[in-house]
Amino acid sequence: MSTRLPIVYIAGIYSGDNVIEILRNIREGIKLGERVFGTGYGAPFIPWLDWQLEMFGDHTTEDYYRYSLSFLHVADVMLVRREMSEASKGTQNEIALAKELRIPVYYDDEFDELIEILIIIHAGNPKVG
């Protein structure tokens, strides 16, 4: 029998004033997703990995928003990188949608609490596992 891990949508600022800020945001977002993956208790969707799609096609910003938000609709929880999240219009829109969809929202400084919730979801949710 295969086991489905809870899906964790990772959110946070992507853009920046210069390429170095953008690369740092990408690095920190991926690190947060890898941290979830490394626990073995969640399957993170990491929007910062979508840059690879642009290597093989020409897509609009709106294409990427639709792509990412499609994963948010099926997520079990959201994990937000708190740093600069208030300044990010995109992150604020993602948080608002998660709340509208009744998806629990956690911040990276609540990581241990999130892992406890993922363990509970995995153990007790009939659609997960």
CATH class: Alpha Beta
In the CATH hierarchy, what is the superfamily? Hypothetical protein PA1492
Instruction: Tell me the overall shape.
Output: globular
How would you characterize the largest beta sheet?
4 strands, parallel
Number of domains in the coordinates? 1
* CATH domain fold name: Rossmann fold
Strand arrangement in the largest pleated sheet: 2-1-3-4
Helix content: 40-55%
Structure explained in plain terms:
With 129 residues, the protein is of the alpha/beta class. The chain has a single domain (7-124), classed as Rossmann fold (3-Layer(aba) Sandwich), CATH 3.40.50.10400. It contains five helices and four strands, in the order βαβααβαβα. It has helices at 19-39, 51-54, 61-72, 89-100, 111-124; strands at 7-11, 43-45, 77-80, 105-107. A four-stranded parallel β-sheet has the order 2-1-3-4, with helices on both faces. It is globular. The mean pLDDT is 91.
What key attributes describe this structure?
four-stranded parallel β-sheet; 129 residues; 5 helices; Rossmann fold; 4 strands; alpha/beta; single chain
